[in-house]
Design goal:
By secondary structure, the chain is mainly α. Helix content is about 60%, strand content about 0%.
């Protein structure tokens, strides 16, 4: 059973590695989690502006990976969402 679960996780990780894009995968995560702070009144409206998210992708990856400052205010981000954000950055931040 443990082997089957490991194989399933590896295969799902492979799917992430090939197809992560801002519009399909990352924007919904940002809309769900990041709009608590990063909304229209914030100087970094990540949800609506791909160029800002793209430019800051390395910082976003670090902050989300280390769980230092993002997300703030006790907002929960799942490990699978963290993995998608990290993979998006590693893949070059595709739109």
């Amino acid at each position: 059973m443990k082997t089957i679960l490991t194989i399933a996780l590896l295969l799902s990780g492979t799917a992430f590695a090939e197809n992560v894009s801002f519009s399909k995968d990352i924007k919904p995560i940002f809309a769900k989690i990041c709009t608590v702070c990063h909304n229209g009144s914030n100087p970094l409206p990540l949800v609506t502006l791909y160029p800002i998210a793209f430019r800051l992708r390395s910082t976003i990856k670090t902050r989300v990976s280390d769980n230092k400052g993002m997300p703030a205010y006790g907002v929960y981000i799942s490990e699978s969402d963290r993995a998608l954000v990290k993979q998006w950055v590693l893949d070059g931040g595709k739109q």
